[in-house]
From TrEMBL:
Organism: Streptomyces nanshensis
Family annotation (NCBIfam families): PPOX_MSMEG_5819
Single Gene Ontology MF annotation: coenzyme F420 binding
Transmembrane feature ranges: none
Protein name: Pyridoxamine 5'-phosphate oxidase
Keywords: Oxidoreductase
Boundaries of every Pyridoxamine 5'-phosphate oxidase N-terminal domain copy: 13-105
Length: 129
């Protein structure tokens, strides 16, 4: 199992992996320095950014955390096999852009969206995808 770490853009294999999933864990940090992790839905965009929304996103601690500090981390991973133990995934560290306004990302979501701009990417176990 190989691992790849790079600054900036997602490569084609990482994009293909992310496009095949819909849930990630998003980590933010509150103003006191306490980390917070939430499972969130996401949508990979053609430009390599990632959008995440919610049903009342503007009222969440995650939104407030990102308003104070736009740095975040996302992880999408899975266990492929338990015997032999095989895992794969992608970690993205980057900056959030907070957007407010009408969108058609998914029905029922509030007007707030988080656009993740990847700055650093680490992936593992994606060989053969």
């Amino acid at each position: 199992m190989s691992a790849t770490t790079r600054e900036r853009e997602l490569d084609a294999t990482e994009r293909a992996y992310l496009a095949g999933h819909r849930i990630c864990r998003m980590a933010t940090v509150d103003p006191s320095g306490q980390p917070q992790v939430n499972p969130v839905g996401y949508f990979l965009q053609d430009d390599g950014t990632i959008l995440s929304g919610g049903f009342d996103l503007g009222r969440t601690k995650r939104w407030r955390n990102l308003h104070a500090n736009p740095r975040l981390s996302l992880v999408v991973d899975e266990v492929v096999s338990q015997d032999p133990w095989t895992v794969r995934g992608v970690e993205i560290r980057g900056e959030a852009e907070l957007l407010v306004g009408p969108h058609d990302l998914a029905p029922g979501m509030s007007d707030e969206l988080i656009r993740v701009h990847p700055r650093w990417v680490h992936s593992w176990g994606l060989d053969g995808l």
